[in-house]
Amino acid sequence: MARVGSIKSSDEEFKMRVGVLTGGGDCPGLNAVIRAVVRKGVKTHGFDFVGYRDGWKGPLEGLTMELGIAQCRGILPRGGTILGSSRTNPFKIDGGVESIKDNLAKDGVDAPGRDRR
Asked: For the chain, N or C: smaller number of CB within 10 Å?
């Protein structure tokens, strides 16, 4: 059963944790997308976010950064992406996909998100 947002029950509150990465080459507007996703997710749905550094290299090697509204302030005029990017392909690395699954679980990520270029 998929759980979305901050769900309250009589026993506990579930808070969705979303992983965000930007993979492939740089393109204009990635910081705007990151900012919009984080602001909407936090303010409207109560989500927590973790940013994965340097594209798929981040979840592959456990390279993370805190990603909240404070970290997204002032990023619109900056070029590139605050998360960094790379052309790492986890499918071309032995054990790459399994390593990513393990790191997502270790980081408590409920929903991996990525740019959909």
From this structure: N
- What is the torsion angle, in degrees rounded to the nearest 10, for the CA atoms of residue 23, residue 17, residue 29 and residue 32? -160
- Looking at residue 88, its amino acid is T
pTM: 0.82
Which residue, among 86, 35, 32, 33, has the nearest Cα to 60 in the 3D structure?
Answer: 86
Tell me which amino acid residue 105 is.
A
pLDDT in tens, 14-48: 789 999 999 877 788 999 999 999 999 999 999 99
Beta-carbon count within 10 A of 73 CB:
10
Burial letters 20-48, b for 16+ CB under 10 A, else e: bbbbeeeeeebbebbbebbeebbeeeebb
Q: Which domains does the chain have, with CATH numbers?
A: 17-114 (3.40.50.450)
Which two tokens mark 97? 């996909």
Instruction: Give the pairing type, strands 111-114 and 17-21.
Output: parallel
